[in-house]
Structures are given as C-alpha cells and as structure tokens.
C-alpha cells in the first residue's frame, strides 16, 4: 500500500487552547493532513476529483505535538480508505481510520 510519513510540528497553531496543559491535534486538522497526503498522489487526486468528501472516520488514539505519523491508503473505485499510524512508540499505533470518496461534480 502507498504511504507517506509526516511530523506534526510542536508549535502547530492548532495546539493553542486545544487543550491547555495537554495539547491534542484536532481531528479536522488531522483529516486535512490526510487529505493533503492523498491528493499528493496523482492517481488518487484524479480518483477523488476536485471536491472529495469524507465518507467515514474513526479516531482511535490522540495525536500530540511532534508526533510522527504514517498515512497509508488503498483505493477501490471512487473510495480511498486510509489509516493513520503513530510512529512515536515501539509499535505503530493506529490513530485514525476512514475513507474519502469522490464528491459530486457540477
């Protein structure tokens, strides 16, 4: 399966106020990172089109400042299933799973 690794900056602005004393990456920011990674793959970008929509998501573990992540995906039809794995432990820990679908075209 294709994959891309990324690191969430310690000083990412979304950590301010979310949550004081125990910063947590908001789910919407994590999904934006996933979508950006997916759209970086030309085949997936064509498959999802210009208006991809989130079909489903499940958040499984928190993502904090400086977290290393690996996004893996698999395409089937107009759907692209993804898994986000945390790399900051001895074992890759699932952080999120879900799928994006091609959105309606105008």
TrEMBL record:
InterPro entries: ApeI-like, HotDog_dom_sf. Gene3D superfamilies: Hotdog Thioesterase. Residues 4-86 form the ApeI dehydratase-like domain. Pfam families: ApeI-like. It comes from the Bacteria. This is (3R)-hydroxymyristoyl-[ACP] dehydratase. It comes from Caldimonas brevitalea.
């Amino acid at each position: 399966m294709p994959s891309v690794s990324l690191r969430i900056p310690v000083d990412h602005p979304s950590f301010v106020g979310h949550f004081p004393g125990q910063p947590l990456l908001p789910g919407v920011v994590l999904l934006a990172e996933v979508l950006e990674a997916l759209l970086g793959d030309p085949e997936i970008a064509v498959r999802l089109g210009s208006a991809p929509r989130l079909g489903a998501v499940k958040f499984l573990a928190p993502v904090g400042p400086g977290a290393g992540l690996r996004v893996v995906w698999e395409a089937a039809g107009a759907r692209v299933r993804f898994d986000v794995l945390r790399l900051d432990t001895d074992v890759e820990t699932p952080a999120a799973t879900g799928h994006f679908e091609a959105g309606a075209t105008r």
